[in-house]
């Protein structure tokens, strides 16, 4: 798979002041290794954090900046860090990076890991200092072979340079970092399933409480953050809270920038670092270049396969969590999909739900049985073999597998696109209902 690249025009406009995540990217898309990264102000934030800031000061800085998780859930990062125990006797604790990027139509973390590996390492080093974690793991999607190779080389570079290991920057802080490749399971994106997998167990979500901050990997306090989330930390430490907040568009309730993208039959599919609050129309028209000749936009998803479909008139929505919520769905990962007018929604959903059904861990009944049931109905509708009541059954499944009805968030995300597709394109589902064979009326003599 070739990773969609940023356009040269976007590259020339990037700067450290406006694009904290991507300004260091090379035009040839090669990894930025240690020497180049340090020339581009790399590890200066880590030096500041370890030598000049106390752990609770780093936590408070991230909390004040309003950094939220970039994996889709959007939980405030500083608040999550604050849940870790302050008891110094609990001195064995872990920082886990969730790099199990298996949301269909999402590749943002891959770009950061393959091209800016030291940004992630620096972000984890600062975060570990804030959490007083002595060891970190990057839990990486197994299919990301290039990312694993690049990250391991970058970790070796950092360790050789004294940026990992013992007494980093003479601060007395020790931190070791390792890459752990998973077996390719979508459910490992759920933090407790990730922890189970890291321990060598079956990748099922755990009951909460206890939360990982209290009882995580190997029973120790643990914090799990997404790749993009951790990559925001160095710039916040270096440039401050007010600068970070000012990056977003006025009116956005989320702060900073976000990696956003558009795929599908658009003229310029790709990935861009953009301020929160930019309109989806700007992302679609100015960055992605609109639809290719011969195609028109039928609908779009704002952030991965687990978000609801929206119509072209929703493109004026602002790209932040609250802005997308106003039009009825979630921002998710921020990487949008353009669905063109040649696509039948029933077939598209059948393909999506086959993925989600296969990736269910099978732990709870609604998800284990409900998602295959949706696939069976969608497959019948796709082939014109649906039965009266099938659409209503799908709608009931959307309710029964919704938030709070299942053990984790896998099923609610899986069925959200079904509900929105029926809402906006019900006629395409109705077209899949088999029509009863016409019956010739009986002759009068037989009727008697």
TrEMBL record:
Top class in the EC scheme: translocase
Highest taxon listed in the record's lineage: Bacteria
Every NADH-ubiquinone oxidoreductase 51kDa subunit iron-sulphur binding domain range: 346-391
EC number: 7.1.1.-
Pfam family, one: Complex1_51K
GO molecular function: 4 iron, 4 sulfur cluster binding; FMN binding; metal ion binding; NAD binding; NADH dehydrogenase (ubiquinone) activity; quinone binding
InterPro entries, sorted: NADH-UbQ_OxRdtase_51kDa_CS (IPR001949), NADH-UbQ_OxRdtase_suF (IPR011537), Nuo51_FMN-bd (IPR011538), Nuo51_FMN-bd_sf (IPR037225), Nuop51_4Fe4S-bd (IPR019575), Nuop51_4Fe4S-bd_sf (IPR037207)
Keywords: 4Fe-4S, Flavoprotein, FMN, Iron, Iron-sulfur, Metal-binding, NAD, Quinone, Translocase
Cofactor requirement: FMN; [4Fe-4S] cluster
Cleaved signal peptide residues: none
Catalysed reaction, written as an equation: a quinone + NADH + 5 H(+)(in) = a quinol + NAD(+) + 4 H(+)(out)
PROSITE patterns tied to this protein: COMPLEX1_51K_1, COMPLEX1_51K_2
Subunit comment: Composed of 13 different subunits. Subunits NuoCD, E, F, and G constitute the peripheral sector of the complex.
General function of this protein: NDH-1 shuttles electrons from NADH, via FMN and iron-sulfur (Fe-S) centers, to quinones in the respiratory chain.
Family per similarity comment: Belongs to the complex I 51 kDa subunit family.
The protein's name in its UniProt record: NADH-quinone oxidoreductase subunit F
């Amino acid at each position: 798979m070739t990773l969609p690249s940023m356009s040269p025009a976007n590259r020339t406009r990037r700067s450290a002041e406006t694009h904290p995540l991507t300004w260091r990217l090379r035009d040839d898309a090669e990894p930025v290794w240690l020497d180049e990264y340090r020339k581009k102000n790399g590890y200066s934030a880590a030096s500041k954090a370890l030598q000049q800031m106390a752990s609770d000061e780093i936590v408070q800085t991230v909390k004040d900046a309003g950094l939220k998780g970039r994996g889709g859930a959007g939980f405030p990062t500083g608040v999550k860090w604050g849940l870790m125990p302050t008891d110094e006797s609990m001195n064995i604790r872990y920082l886990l990076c969730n790099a199990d990027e298996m949301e269909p139509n999402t590749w943002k973390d891959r770009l950061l890991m393959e091209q800016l590996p030291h940004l992630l390492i620096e972000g984890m080093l600062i975060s570990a200092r804030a959490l007083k974690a002595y060891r970190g793991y990057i839990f990486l999607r197994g299919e990301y072979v290039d990312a694993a190779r690049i990250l391991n080389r970058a970790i070796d570079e950092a360790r050789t340079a004294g940026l990992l290991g013992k007494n980093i920057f003479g601060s007395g802080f020790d931190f070791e970092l390792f890459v752990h490749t998973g077996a390719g399971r979508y459910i490992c994106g759920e933090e407790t399933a990730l922890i189970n997998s890291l321990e060598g167990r079956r990748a099922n979500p755990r009951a909460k409480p206890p939360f990982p901050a209290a009882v995580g990997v190997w029973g120790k306090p643990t914090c799990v953050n997404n790749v993009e989330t951790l990559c925001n930390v160095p710039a916040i430490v270096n440039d401050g809270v007010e600068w970070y907040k000012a990056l977003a568009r006025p009116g956005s309730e989320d702060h900073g920038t976000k990696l956003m993208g558009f795929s599908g039959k658009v003229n310029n599919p790709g990935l861009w670092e953009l301020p929160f609050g930019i309109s989806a129309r700007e992302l679609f028209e100015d960055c992605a270049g609109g639809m290719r000749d011969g195609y028109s936009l039928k609908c779009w998803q704002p952030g991965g396969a687990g978000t609801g479909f929206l119509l072209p008139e929703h493109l004026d929505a602002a790209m932040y969590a609250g802005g997308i919520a106003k039009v009825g769905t979630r921002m998710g990962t921020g990487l949008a999909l353009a669905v063109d007018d040649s696509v039948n929604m029933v077939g598209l959903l059948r393909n999506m739900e086959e993925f989600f059904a296969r990736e269910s861990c099978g732990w709870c009944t609604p998800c284990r049985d409900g998602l295959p049931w949706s696939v069976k109905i969608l497959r019948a509708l796709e082939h014109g073999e649906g039965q009266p009541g099938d659409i209503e059954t799908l709608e009931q499944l959307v309710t029964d597998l919704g938030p709070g009805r299942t053990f984790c968030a896998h099923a609610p995300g899986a069925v959200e696109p079904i509900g929105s597709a029926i809402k906006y394109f019900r006629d395409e589902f109705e077209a899949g209902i088999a029509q009863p064979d016409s019956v010739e009326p009986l002759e009068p003599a037989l009727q008697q």
